[in-house]
Amino acid sequence: MTFAIHLSGHVKAVVDATLPALTSSLVASGITAGDASLWGSDAETEAAQRLGWVEAVSVSRPLVPEIVALRESLSSRGVTRIVLAGMGGSSLAPEVITRTAGVPLVVLDSTSPGQVLAALDGDESGSLAQTALVVASKSGSTVETDSAKRAFEAAFRDLGIDPVERIVVVTDPGSPMETAARADGYTVFTADPTVGGRYSALTAFGLVPSGLAGADISELLDEAEASMLEVAIDSPDNPALVLAAAIAGGGADRRDKLGLVTDGTHIVGLPDWIEQLVAESTGKAGTGILPVVLLPVSPELDNRPADLQIVRLVDEANEFHLFEHHEGEVLISGSLGAQFIVWEYATAIAGRMLGINPFDQPDVESAKTATRGLLEERPEPTAPAFVVDGVEVRSTDESLLASGTIAGVLDALWAQIPDRGYVAVQAYVDRLALPQLQGLRELVAADSGRPTTFGWGPRFLHSTGQFHKGGPATGVFLQIVEQTDTDVEIPGRPFTFGELIRAQAAGDAAVLAASGRPVVTLTLTDPQIEVLSLFEAAQ
């Protein structure tokens, strides 16, 4: 068996009660057959154009020799370093694949000037002169990806390198990026347009950057193929049906938050990929499943909220001692290819159980629209309510600012968390320079007493950002932004990377506030000094 799942306690009872209806509805075989009617008449048109991932393994097979040949060609020209410019599913799947394979891939999924400069400057895997860039965008119009492409084109030319020799484009057929890239002479891989971004792990979006970086993508497809029969059968043993029942079952009393714990598995970083798949697919129409990426020692595991279901990713889910010591949890093991397939099926099935369309993202565009408006209008930044130790404090809700202290503001924000609510920490900073900021999640979870998510901005806008706006209105939001003298021009654009990331943060805060979600923004005017102040305030 390529995938194992074990249950106990409450979640086993929920699954046992849910499975009969799932098997009798023939949903697993229906998905495999491409039945677009499974999610209701309102979703049928969209679903009819979004089920190509079911056939991704066979469709992608011919890509493997092309990708291997390109890797060999690049290597023969001295290219030792692959950078990927992509957002959401276009970067998260390759990141998991390459980290699990132990091969280097530089992922540029940020508009932070510091991160852009780091990608341009090179690292231990090679200099810019030894670099090739993969530009990945389904729509061909993603602002972050287009901006990175422009910056790399200029940097290559400055070195006397023709960008056509070093940039590889992955996009949907007919997109603006495909048209322009082919006209300019770039190498282009087109992906199946009937696969949405978050379901694209086993398409060109997952395979091209991973294969160029050195991962064994043929083996990955073999792993996925080995699980296809299991998920296609309408049986209570179908792991996708079991997983869907575990994460979406329970009716009105269901646990709508999913704690994802990596505990000894050989797969690196899978919860981040699951987070974007599940949150963006289910977080809409006021409902959804909120993934919460946890450590094995996270506060939520000691004092478990009643609305949090734990899923533990292990190497051997059928080991009895593990099963015995994690009562009430879902234990999962399997190859990476199998994980991709089972989670995609389970998420689509969960969408049907929740009565929503798992293939659209109706609220993602709102933050993009707000960002464009801010870049066009260039309003003066609002003055902070107060400044403590170089940390500027602002909020969309003035009542949260009365204390005049960071700790007081955070306490006031936690007080606004409704029953079954959550905290979202959003860090619009250079994550290479400030990786320790992710530790803020653990402190906030302990201090607030509620499940807490952490997202690097603007990356999360292409994943959990949909849940924040379309899911239940139960979140409170803590933004961390940085003020830095470092900036990078975007050739051919009237704004810089620094201006773009600031507009993205401000635009998202405005959209959240307009939908009744409170936002506190803390601006680090000297991030290297003030990170500890944030940690102290959060405790």
Name the features.
22 helices, Rossmann fold, five-stranded mixed beta sheet, 16% strand, six-stranded mixed beta sheet, alpha/beta, 539 residues, globular
Structural notes for this entry:
The protein is of the alpha/beta class. The chain folds into three domains: 3-51 and 234-354, Rossmann fold (3-Layer(aba) Sandwich), CATH 3.40.50.10490; 61-220, Rossmann fold, CATH 3.40.50; 364-538, Rossmann fold, CATH 3.40.50.10490. It contains 22 helices and 16 strands. It has a six-stranded mixed β-sheet, with helices on both faces. Helix 21 links the parallel strand 15 and strand 16 (519-524). It is globular and about 60 Å long.
Task: Summarize the entry for a quick read.
This protein has 539 residues and is α/β, with parallel strands linked by helices. Helix content is 45%, strand content 16%. The strands form three sheets. A six-stranded mixed sheet has the order 11-12-16-15-13-14, with helices on both faces. Strands 1-10-9-7-8 form a five-stranded mixed sheet. A five-stranded parallel sheet has the order 3-2-4-5-6, sandwiched between helices.
Task: Give the neighbour order of strands across the main sheet.
Answer: 11-12-16-15-13-14
Q: What's the total number of strands?
A: 16
Percentage of residues assigned to helices: 40-55%
N- and C-termini, Cα separation: 45 Å
CATH topology of the largest domain: Rossmann fold
**What's the shape?**
globular
Strand percentage lies at 15-25%
Pick out the low-confidence regions: none
CATH homologous superfamily identity of the largest domain: Glucose-6-phosphate isomerase like protein, domain 1
Average pLDDT across residues?
95
